[in-house]
Amino acid sequence: MPDAQSRRMPPSRVPPIDCVATPDGGLIAMTAFPGRRPLPEPGAATADLRALRDWGATRLVTLAKRAEWARLGAPDLPAMAESAGLLWRHAPIPDMETPDAATLAAWSRLAPDLLSTLAAGGRVAMHCAAGLGRTGTMAATLLVQSGMEPSLAVQSVRAARPGAIETDAQLRFVLQTAPLLARL
Protein backbone atom coordinates (compact mmCIF):
# COMPACT_ATOMS: atom_id res chain seq x y z
CA MET A 1 0.00 0.00 0.00
CA PRO A 2 1.34 3.48 -0.77
CA ASP A 3 2.77 5.52 2.12
CA ALA A 4 -0.26 7.79 2.41
CA GLN A 5 -3.93 7.01 2.12
CA SER A 6 -4.39 10.00 -0.14
CA ARG A 7 -2.44 12.09 -2.61
CA ARG A 8 -3.21 15.31 -4.42
CA MET A 9 -2.30 15.98 -8.03
CA PRO A 10 0.06 18.90 -8.61
CA PRO A 11 -1.70 22.25 -8.92
CA SER A 12 -2.90 23.15 -12.38
CA ARG A 13 -5.87 24.76 -14.08
CA VAL A 14 -7.91 21.58 -13.70
CA PRO A 15 -10.00 21.05 -10.56
CA PRO A 16 -8.29 19.11 -7.76
CA ILE A 17 -8.04 15.37 -8.20
CA ASP A 18 -7.94 13.85 -4.73
CA CYS A 19 -6.89 10.23 -4.43
CA VAL A 20 -7.38 7.43 -1.97
CA ALA A 21 -5.50 4.12 -2.01
CA THR A 22 -7.24 0.76 -1.97
CA PRO A 23 -5.92 -1.98 0.34
CA ASP A 24 -4.18 -3.64 -2.61
CA GLY A 25 -2.49 -0.51 -3.95
CA GLY A 26 -4.88 0.78 -6.58
CA LEU A 27 -5.88 4.43 -6.55
CA ILE A 28 -9.33 6.00 -6.75
CA ALA A 29 -9.44 9.61 -7.93
CA MET A 30 -12.29 11.82 -6.74
CA THR A 31 -12.94 14.99 -8.68
CA ALA A 32 -15.58 17.41 -9.90
CA PHE A 33 -17.46 17.01 -13.16
CA PRO A 34 -15.06 17.42 -16.11
CA GLY A 35 -15.35 20.95 -17.40
CA ARG A 36 -17.00 22.38 -14.32
CA ARG A 37 -15.73 25.91 -13.72
CA PRO A 38 -17.11 29.02 -12.01
CA LEU A 39 -17.35 30.65 -15.45
CA PRO A 40 -17.70 28.89 -18.81
CA GLU A 41 -14.30 27.99 -20.21
CA PRO A 42 -14.03 26.49 -23.73
CA GLY A 43 -12.08 23.25 -23.77
CA ALA A 44 -12.23 22.79 -19.99
CA ALA A 45 -13.88 19.36 -20.11
CA THR A 46 -11.31 18.07 -22.60
CA ALA A 47 -8.47 19.43 -20.46
CA ASP A 48 -9.89 17.79 -17.33
CA LEU A 49 -10.32 14.43 -19.06
CA ARG A 50 -6.75 14.57 -20.39
CA ALA A 51 -5.52 15.38 -16.87
CA LEU A 52 -7.27 12.27 -15.56
CA ARG A 53 -5.73 10.18 -18.33
CA ASP A 54 -2.28 11.70 -17.73
CA TRP A 55 -2.67 10.91 -14.02
CA GLY A 56 -3.05 7.29 -15.09
CA ALA A 57 -6.78 6.67 -14.91
CA THR A 58 -8.06 4.04 -17.30
CA ARG A 59 -11.68 4.10 -16.10
CA LEU A 60 -14.02 7.06 -15.53
CA VAL A 61 -17.23 6.58 -13.56
CA THR A 62 -19.84 9.32 -13.88
CA LEU A 63 -22.29 9.46 -10.99
CA ALA A 64 -24.13 12.60 -12.15
CA LYS A 65 -27.44 12.13 -13.91
CA ARG A 66 -27.53 12.84 -17.66
CA ALA A 67 -29.80 15.86 -17.10
CA GLU A 68 -26.92 17.58 -15.24
CA TRP A 69 -24.26 17.23 -17.93
CA ALA A 70 -24.95 20.26 -20.13
CA ARG A 71 -25.23 22.59 -17.14
CA LEU A 72 -21.91 21.25 -15.82
CA GLY A 73 -20.01 21.76 -19.08
CA ALA A 74 -19.90 18.46 -20.97
CA PRO A 75 -23.16 17.40 -22.63
CA ASP A 76 -21.27 14.81 -24.72
CA LEU A 77 -19.28 13.37 -21.83
CA PRO A 78 -19.24 9.68 -22.88
CA ALA A 79 -17.75 10.45 -26.31
CA MET A 80 -15.34 12.98 -24.83
CA ALA A 81 -14.11 10.47 -22.23
CA GLU A 82 -13.61 7.76 -24.84
CA SER A 83 -11.70 10.25 -27.05
CA ALA A 84 -9.44 11.00 -24.11
CA GLY A 85 -8.63 7.30 -23.79
CA LEU A 86 -10.83 6.57 -20.77
CA LEU A 87 -13.23 3.65 -20.51
CA TRP A 88 -16.43 5.46 -19.47
CA ARG A 89 -19.10 4.05 -17.16
CA HIS A 90 -22.32 5.56 -15.79
CA ALA A 91 -24.04 4.85 -12.46
CA PRO A 92 -26.40 7.83 -12.04
CA ILE A 93 -27.40 8.94 -8.55
CA PRO A 94 -29.61 11.96 -7.80
CA ASP A 95 -27.70 14.83 -6.20
CA MET A 96 -27.36 14.56 -2.40
CA GLU A 97 -28.86 11.04 -2.43
CA THR A 98 -27.77 7.40 -2.30
CA PRO A 99 -28.01 4.81 -5.08
CA ASP A 100 -31.48 3.50 -5.88
CA ALA A 101 -32.23 -0.04 -7.10
CA ALA A 102 -31.46 0.81 -10.74
CA THR A 103 -28.12 2.36 -9.83
CA LEU A 104 -27.24 -0.59 -7.61
CA ALA A 105 -27.98 -2.91 -10.54
CA ALA A 106 -25.70 -0.82 -12.78
CA TRP A 107 -23.06 -0.77 -10.04
CA SER A 108 -23.17 -4.56 -9.71
CA ARG A 109 -22.34 -4.81 -13.42
CA LEU A 110 -19.48 -2.30 -13.42
CA ALA A 111 -17.90 -2.91 -9.99
CA PRO A 112 -16.12 -6.17 -10.92
CA ASP A 113 -14.14 -4.39 -13.65
CA LEU A 114 -13.30 -1.49 -11.33
CA LEU A 115 -12.25 -3.85 -8.55
CA SER A 116 -10.02 -5.92 -10.83
CA THR A 117 -8.44 -2.73 -12.20
CA LEU A 118 -7.72 -1.53 -8.67
CA ALA A 119 -6.49 -4.97 -7.52
CA ALA A 120 -3.91 -4.85 -10.32
CA GLY A 121 -2.65 -1.50 -9.00
CA GLY A 122 -4.62 0.49 -11.56
CA ARG A 123 -6.31 3.84 -11.29
CA VAL A 124 -10.00 4.62 -11.47
CA ALA A 125 -11.51 8.12 -11.53
CA MET A 126 -14.99 9.01 -10.33
CA HIS A 127 -16.98 12.20 -10.24
CA CYS A 128 -20.43 13.65 -9.73
CA ALA A 129 -21.01 17.42 -9.89
CA ALA A 130 -18.72 18.73 -7.15
CA GLY A 131 -17.01 15.40 -6.45
CA LEU A 132 -18.16 15.27 -2.84
CA GLY A 133 -21.42 13.52 -1.94
CA ARG A 134 -22.07 10.90 -4.58
CA THR A 135 -18.38 10.57 -5.44
CA GLY A 136 -17.29 10.18 -1.82
CA THR A 137 -20.07 7.67 -1.17
CA MET A 138 -19.15 5.44 -4.09
CA ALA A 139 -15.39 5.80 -3.60
CA ALA A 140 -15.88 4.61 -0.02
CA THR A 141 -18.11 1.81 -1.32
CA LEU A 142 -15.31 0.69 -3.67
CA LEU A 143 -12.89 0.73 -0.73
CA VAL A 144 -15.27 -1.48 1.27
CA GLN A 145 -15.67 -3.79 -1.71
CA SER A 146 -11.85 -3.91 -1.87
CA GLY A 147 -11.72 -5.21 1.70
CA MET A 148 -11.48 -2.06 3.83
CA GLU A 149 -13.59 -1.69 6.96
CA PRO A 150 -16.48 0.74 6.32
CA SER A 151 -15.53 3.25 9.03
CA LEU A 152 -11.93 3.33 7.77
CA ALA A 153 -13.21 3.78 4.21
CA VAL A 154 -15.23 6.83 5.29
CA GLN A 155 -12.26 8.22 7.22
CA SER A 156 -9.90 7.67 4.27
CA VAL A 157 -12.22 9.31 1.74
CA ARG A 158 -12.87 12.29 4.00
CA ALA A 159 -9.16 12.72 4.72
CA ALA A 160 -8.43 12.75 0.99
CA ARG A 161 -11.37 14.96 0.02
CA PRO A 162 -12.72 17.07 2.90
CA GLY A 163 -16.48 17.46 2.68
CA ALA A 164 -16.96 14.09 0.97
CA ILE A 165 -19.94 11.91 1.90
CA GLU A 166 -22.19 14.89 2.53
CA THR A 167 -25.40 13.52 4.03
CA ASP A 168 -26.33 11.20 6.88
CA ALA A 169 -28.03 8.92 4.34
CA GLN A 170 -24.80 8.67 2.33
CA LEU A 171 -22.84 7.86 5.48
CA ARG A 172 -25.37 5.18 6.46
CA PHE A 173 -25.14 3.73 2.95
CA VAL A 174 -21.38 3.25 3.28
CA LEU A 175 -21.58 1.88 6.82
CA GLN A 176 -24.56 -0.43 6.28
CA THR A 177 -25.13 -1.18 2.58
CA ALA A 178 -21.59 -1.19 1.18
CA PRO A 179 -20.59 -4.18 3.35
CA LEU A 180 -23.49 -6.14 1.84
CA LEU A 181 -22.30 -5.25 -1.67
CA ALA A 182 -18.82 -6.49 -0.77
CA ARG A 183 -20.25 -9.96 -0.16
CA LEU A 184 -21.86 -10.27 -3.59
UniProtKB/TrEMBL annotation:
Top-rank taxon: Bacteria
Organism: Alsobacter metallidurans
Tyrosine specific protein phosphatases domain: residues covered: 105-172
Gene3D superfamilies registered for this protein in UniProt: Protein tyrosine phosphatase superfamily
GO molecular function, one term: protein tyrosine phosphatase activity
Protein name: Phosphatase
